[in-house]
Amino acid sequence: MNKILLIIQREYVTRVRKKSFIIMTLLVPGLFAGMFAVIAYVATDKDKTMHVVSVIDNSGSFKGKFHDEKFIKYAYPNQSLASAKTALKDEDDLLLNIPANIKDSVQLFARKKSTLALADNIQGQMNDIAMGASLVKAGIDTANLHKVKSNIVIKPTELTAAGEKNTSMGATYALSFSGAVLIYLSLFIYGAQVMRGVIEEKTSRIIEVIVSSVKPFQLMMGKIIGVGLVGLTQFVLWIGLTALISHFVGHNASGVNSALNNFVHNLGSDAGYELGCFLFYWITGFLFYSALFAAVGSAVDSETETQQFMFPITLPLLFTYILSVSYLFMVPDSPLAVWLSMIPLSAPVAMMVRIPFHVPAWQLAVSMGLMIVGFIFTTYVAARIYRVGILMYGKKTSYKELVKWFFYKE
Q1: Are 294 and 193 found together in one domain?
Q2: Which of 123, 170, 180, 239 would staple 324 via disulfide (CB 3.0–4.6 Å)?
Q3: How would you write the pLDDT of the chain (410 residues) with one tens digit per residue?
Q4: Residues 142 and 182 grouped into a single domain
């Protein structure tokens, strides 16, 4: 045990002292804060461009009926379509040509491609005008129709043992995505560090000196836990620094401050539960995949040779990540989501998508139990391969060779 602790200390201290660790630890929170500031800036009216839409109405049904908006003004020039096209010189101006028969195609001309939002705005106004004309023709009083028009807003409320609790679907989706993305990226980043460390020590022949003092299993576990603690340290620092920087940025950007306050408010009492689940799946997922990465690193002589072994290992995680951001968050209780959150290869990502939607206790317990059993079994298999692979040089490794290494006796 003391030898494992020494290896953990060496791996941890060596990595946290690197300039790359310090730079990335300080840089990432700044990038996040900068991203929020940019989003708040572009969301304001500062960058809005004034558009003038010239309307050539050959139907006679729309002239004078478009209403101006903050950044869209309508004009009705008394000229032909050809003349209006020639007069259209400003790249931010547009020309709307409405045919005599409204069933024909309506054309929107511009010197550059118009944005989808702008086209949708014009199209929406045209549909409202056409619908109003149809209602009047049918003898329906549009003024009374607008009076009785309702504006219903649904407020999601969750019934819990403690009583009613307001919920925010936006905050829930944000938690789903952020949890899945963070675990997915960190498993690759820090797992790859374990693999590279093993390859470097193996190719430099330092490993031959090290294994004369410690057992291969001790060395592997020391490297995995040491790098894991480095990742955990970086995560804690990122969260703390991001919160601190966002607090100061929020004072100067009311939109950011309001968004952050709403997000924290909507987390409520579930924040501790969700953070605890995140830490559990991050740690167990890291141990699970890092053991496999360490085995791969011990089986090859260079990083270029790792692809044939890395793809089968990472494919389930990649598959689950793609499903998570495109499908699972919409149906978190579907059979597919439940099974993916149980299987250790995919559970760290799939379960983080489901956690904000309150996973049944028995499913969470089964998933956590399988994760623990999974990383213990994976560590055992990886250790059997690792103890042979770290001393193998110059031989092209295949899956058949890995199976042989697993069954070699001590």
Answers
A1: yes
A2: 180
A3: 788 888 888 888 888 888 888 888 888 777 777 776 676 666 555 446 788 888 888 888 888 888 888 888 888 888 888 888 888 877 778 888 888 887 778 888 887 766 667 788 888 888 888 888 888 788 777 677 677 666 666 666 655 666 555 555 666 666 667 778 888 888 888 888 888 888 877 777 777 677 677 777 788 888 888 888 888 888 788 877 877 776 665 555 444 455 445 545 555 556 677 788 888 998 898 888 888 888 888 888 777 777 778 888 888 888 988 888 778 878 888 899 999 999 999 999 999 888 888 888 999 999 999 999 988 888 888 888 887 777 777 667 777 888 887 777 76
A4: no
For residue 135, the enclosing domain spans: 51-148
CA distance 208 to 210: 6
Q: Which residues neighbour 56 within 8 Å (Cβ) at sequence distance 6 or greater?
A: 77, 79, 80, 81, 84, 95, 96, 97, 98
- Considering the entire predicted model, what is its pTM? 0.65
Chain centroid offset of residue 291 CA: 25
Q: Render 317-355 in DSSP notation, one character per residue.
A: HHHHHHHIIIIITTSTTSHHHHHHHHSTTTHHHHHHHHG
Are 275 and 134 members of one domain?
no
Cα-based distances in Å from 53 to 11, 129, 191, 299, 309: 64, 16, 56, 66, 59
Question: In this structure, what token pair is assigned to residue 124?
Answer: 């929406």
Within 8 A by CB and 6+ apart from 154, the residues are: none
Structure tokens at 147: 């009076």
Are 295 and 200 found together in one domain? yes
DSSP string covering 355-387: GGG---HHHHHHHHHHHHHHHHHHHHHHHHHHH
Domain C-terminal end among 100, 120, 148: 148
